[in-house]
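does this look right to u?? flavin-adenine dinucleotide version
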Amino acid sequence: MAEVLEVAVVGGGPTGLMVACELALAGVRVQVFERRAEPVRESRALTLHPRSLEVLALRGLETRFLERGRPLPTGHFAMLDTRLDFSVLDTRFPYTLFIPQAVTEALLEARARELGVAVRRGHTVEALRQDADGMELEGASEAGAFRVRARFVVGADGARSAVRRLTGIAFPGTDVTRTAVLGDVTLGAPPSQPAIGVTNTRGGVMVVPMAPGIHRIVVNDPLREQVPLREPVTLDELRESVTRIVGTDFGMKDPRWLSRFGNETRLADRYRDGRVLLAGDAAHIHFPAGGQGLNVGLQDAMNLGWKLAAVVKEGAPDTLLDSYSRERRPVGDALIRNTLAQTALIGATQETLALRALMSDLLRAPKLNREFADSISALDVGYAALEVPAPQVDAPLLPEWSGRRLNDLALRKDDGTDVPLYSALHPGRWVLLELGDDSRALPRWEPGWPPNVTHLRARAPAARAELKDVGGMLVRPDGHVGWAWAA
Ligand SMILES: Cc1cc2nc3c(=O)[nH]c(=O)nc-3n(C[C@H](O)[C@H](O)[C@H](O)COP(=O)(O)OP(=O)(O)OC[C@H]3O[C@@H](n4cnc5c(N)ncnc54)[C@H](O)[C@@H]3O)c2cc1C
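got this back:
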């Protein structure tokens, strides 16, 4: 008899672990099936961007990450000379946090285990069947074959997703046409600034801090961009390219990890097929420009987790799950487009260098720089109104607020207690936030859903002029506005 779960998450990378945390927080019976027997040691991603830090703060997890990373108040677009100024962003986290992916995964796995999630390492999912009542998964582990039933399956199993393939979800896009290399190395003579980028007619090099004593060097070398992905990288290759492009090898030695990566670019044609939902790299892959892939995966996970939990546990309408694809696929599409644009700008021809210089000049204009910073940091992501019944309130609804991302507002109760908005969202429930007059009748909504709403009456800071005319809001568990109504 197969074990019966409410949700099986396939893939224990950052996306799968984050979804599992969200589900477990809501009391969903969930397990993670991860092919690798051991945690990853090498670190593909290095960056957590402002919205991801907000996502972690929405569950009270930010300190664990901030303690292990290093903040830099900038981001980048295509390694252009003018960096993106994150310090002006409207967020509690106006910086990029440099933190190796292996650390991010370890912290998320620890959180998942705290919440009681079984992370079943060394378990490879190989077959999926969908029927009227649920899903059946089959796979292999060292202990032999395993079989599990689940009401839903989350495919967070990365770029070569078996879940996507077995479900028949198409993954259209383009194959690798160029490759680049990276090395995590010790530098005997590191650059004087924490993060540098050099691009000239010989190629492009970016050097960023990774961990105490270790830097990541990323090299786009036009002489070697046709080297196939499968060809191993050597320290000599990295050193030769960097020296030719920059004029120094920064005294590189002791490589921890050397890797070649490419610009294969694809987007799943849908994120949901019945009881199967895709998230993270299983749904979108691209050239890793701007350091966004892991970030978007975490944000997919946050969007999906509470919705799936609401459907499984709280009788939310099944259509809520369609809103996951409707909200997140356009974000994946925008990610694909911005990384393609960055890939076009990462080059060393005269034309590309002229375009880079032009773009760098344009980015000196604060307004444009801010727009790019909002986009790469993902703070600009907003959604349309959810297609579930709106609450009834004795005041006009403010539809333009629905779907907006809310900052961690510094709210204050009438008794003088400070309540940052995100702290009210730590349990992962909806928050009914009353900002105005307490004589007003509370809103009413369809019986049953959203359930377990946390009620909070507080004042917004006076500096938040945009909230002056807002009487209250139902805030989604992911910190976006569900509905708002007038004061
Ligand atoms: C060189 C490079 C640099 C990058 N730098 C950044 C960066 O700075 N910032 C950023 O945000 N992103 C970056 N990325 C992208 C980032 O690494 C990915 O977007 C991120 O790992 C995606 O997470 P995921 O959990 O969706 O998928 P993955 O991390 O790929 O995890 C999927 C998991 O599923 C498991 N799995 C696969 N198949 C099965 C199966 N059949 N059964 C069970 N388990 C299975 C795998 O073992 C794996 O652990 C970079 C990528 C590369 C290549």
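Residues 94 and 392 are 37 Å apart (CA to CA). idk if thats expected tbh
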